[in-house]
């Protein structure tokens, strides 16, 4: 109740400021529907779920013109559950999705500080995946999007201005563990190109998995997690084609979304050396529909050889620029004891098959 009261106070305060200064925007996404999952140890699961295509959220975005092309900016964004009205976060943070402040210059670029998305996840959700990292066909089911690969706290992010279609991003996240300047830190960078129908990104993410000594508990040194991803899409008007290829090496480079959803005697193992491939398409259907389809392959290069393939098909029908209804289906084939599941944007899923039907509204 205290959190909900605080959210209400913040909404009221920002709304008043938005009316007074016209530089604060309240925005969000309301997404909910029915999810039916099959094939896991939990058996047949049918439920009402929030955030199938994209996590339902409430956000505040602000900017102030400081003159000479320089602006102060901020974003505060929290996840919400439409099915029961609760806050949607795992770490009890109020603004668990994004919380940052920074400066934006037309000539020098943008520098922001706080909890932010990684270049790796932005490339997956914005460029690589015809499902936009949501619905049953989400790229997150097999590509490495778990935990800090999606967003990270204590981060400084710099983005260059766009020049002839090219731009670049860099991220450094402090681990903030006493006694170590490197334990838990994360860094990444991305090279982007967008020009007309072509959109491409090459990104790298490096996550330090060490933990510093705490009292009598000694420090733990581990291999870092390293992810490289190339993503591209091209709009042919009659269809939009998608392609992505990734390489994942080291601890936590490809964490499993679900620990042991199938109840195996020997639980699946997260790969320390794998490749990811996605081929997909969006096809516009008159007057206001879009067919989405993709094939994803996880190639585990370790001795476990726990590969997986996913096929997915979906349809989004726009009732307006902000409102749409959707249906999606995906199936995963696990090999050699692999344990990947068909989830959606907000859930890892419980089995190897899932069907979604729902509605979303952006404001």
Automatic annotation (TrEMBL):
Where is it localised? Answer: Cell outer membrane
Signal peptide span: 1-20
- Coiled-coil annotation reads none
Please give the InterPro entries that the UniProt record associates with this protein: Gram-neg_bact_OMP, Gram_neg_porin_domain, Porin_dom_sf, Porin_Gram-ve, Porin_Neis
User: What membrane topology does the UniProt entry give?
Assistant: Multi-pass membrane protein
Q: Which UniProt keywords apply?
A: Cell outer membrane, Ion transport, Membrane, Porin, Signal, Transmembrane, Transmembrane beta strand, Transport
Where primarily located? membrane
List, alphabetically, the Pfam families matched. Porin_4
Q: Which residues form the Porin domain?
A: 10-336
Q: How does it assemble?
A: Homotrimer.
Protein name (record): Porin
Supply the source organism for this entry: Duganella violaceipulchra
């Amino acid at each position: 109740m205290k959190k909900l009261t605080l959210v209400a106070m913040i909404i009221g305060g920002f709304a008043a400021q938005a009316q007074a200064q016209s530089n604060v925007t309240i925005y969000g996404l309301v997404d909910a529907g029915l999810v039916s999952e099959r094939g896991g140890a939990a058996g047949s699961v049918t439920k009402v779920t929030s955030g199938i295509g994209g996590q339902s959220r409430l956000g505040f975005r602000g900017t102030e013109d400081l003159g000479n092309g320089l602006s102060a900016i901020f974003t505060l964004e929290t996840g919400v559950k439409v099915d029961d009205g609760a806050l949607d976060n795992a770490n009890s943070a109020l603004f668990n999705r994004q919380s940052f402040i920074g400066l934006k210059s037309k000539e020098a670029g943008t520098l922001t500080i706080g909890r932010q998305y990684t270049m790796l996840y932005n490339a997956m959700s914005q460029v690589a995946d015809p499902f936009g990292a949501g619905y049953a066909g989400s790229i997150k089911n097999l590509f490495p999007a778990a935990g800090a690969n999606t967003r990270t706290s204590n981060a400084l992010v710099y983005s260059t201005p766009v020049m002839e279609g090219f731009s670049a991003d860099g991220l450094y996240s402090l681990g903030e563990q006493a006694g170590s300047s490197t334990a838990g830190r994360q860094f990444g960078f991305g090279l982007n190109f967008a020009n007309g129908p072509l959109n491409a990104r090459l990104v790298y993410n490096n996550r330090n998995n060490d933990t510093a000594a705490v009292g009598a508990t000694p420090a733990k040194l581990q291999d870092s997690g390293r992810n490289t991803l190339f993503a591209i899409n091209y709009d042919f008007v009659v269809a939009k084609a998608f392609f992505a290829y990734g390489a994942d090496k080291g601890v936590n480079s490809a964490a499993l979304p679900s620990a042991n959803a199938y109840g195996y005697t020997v639980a699946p193992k997260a790969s320390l050396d794998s490749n990811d491939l996605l081929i997909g398409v969006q096809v516009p259907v008159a007057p206001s529909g879009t067919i989405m389809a993709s094939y994803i392959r996880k190639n585990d290069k370790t001795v476990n050889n726990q590969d997986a393939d996913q096929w997915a098909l979906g349809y989004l029908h726009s009732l307006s620029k902000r409102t749409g209804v959707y249906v999606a289906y995906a199936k995963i084939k696990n090999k050699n004891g692999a344990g990947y599941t068909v989830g959606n944007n907000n859930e890892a899923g419980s089995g190897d098959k899932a069907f979604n039907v729902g509605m979303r509204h952006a404001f």
